[in-house]
Specification:
204 residues, 10 strands, alpha+beta, globular, 5-stranded antiparallel beta sheet
């Protein structure tokens, strides 16, 4: 398996974990879909209390290994129902409960480290805002003065983790290199906070 294939498969599976095992059960229990970055992992913000910690799903009563099992099997073990959020949004990962979770170790580390770096940079950039890991597009982001700032694990636009600045109203200029604003692979951005600040200055 190539590195890019492993990253794509791991990203899809991890997105499925976020939606089917965390955000979906949380929405049915608490009416909330938002998730949060925790260390080099992510977690619910309300009941049920669930945290992805590397290849494991941690619950108040213990931890469950994720790779090689279906979402339905994991859900049954932790006492929730694996379900998507198609009734909330239309552009989710399309992962089915009976699919097998595939998490390549290297790819998983790359994705979770990107989320962690993005969360730290967003908090430093805008201390008054709380970054949210959204289960729909699976990015950690904030919005300040009608400009979105965040880190995506990759998608159809760019197949690896990238940082972005997305004004609600399009801007023109060399900095704005993406249809939605500006985007650069995380590995090419030595200072994510500085990237967000540059985007803020140019958007303003």
């Amino acid at each position: 398996m190539t590195e890019s294939t492993e990253l794509a498969r791991t990203r899809r599976s991890l997105h499925g974990v976020a939606e089917l095992l965390l955000a979906g059960p949380q929405f049915r229990s608490s009416g909330r879909i938002e998730l949060r970055v925790v260390g080099e992992g992510f977690a619910t913000i309300a009941e049920p209390a669930l945290t992805v910690d590397g290849p494991r799903l941690v619950t108040p009563s213990g931890a469950v290994d994720l790779p090689g099992r279906t979402y339905r099997e994991v859900a049954a073990e932790i006492g929730v129902e694996a379900g998507d959020l198609a009734d909330v949004y239309s552009d989710g990962p399309g992962v089915r409960p009976d699919e097998t979770i595939e998490l390549g170790a290297g790819a998983l580390s790359t994705l979770l480290r990107a989320f962690a770096a993005g969360d730290r940079a967003l908090r430093a950039f805008a201390p008054g805002e709380t970054p949210v890991l959204w289960p729909e597009h699976f990015d950690v982001a904030i919005t300040v003065a009608e400009v979105n700032y965040g880190v995506s694990p990759g998608d159809t636009f760019l197949s690896e983790p990238y940082a972005y600045v997305g004004p609600h109203e399009p801007r023109r200029g060399e900095f704005w290199n993406a249809p939605f604003g500006a985007a650069h692979p995380v590995r090419e951005v030595p200072d994510l906070e500085a990237f967000f600040r540059e985007g803020q200055a140019l958007a303003g």
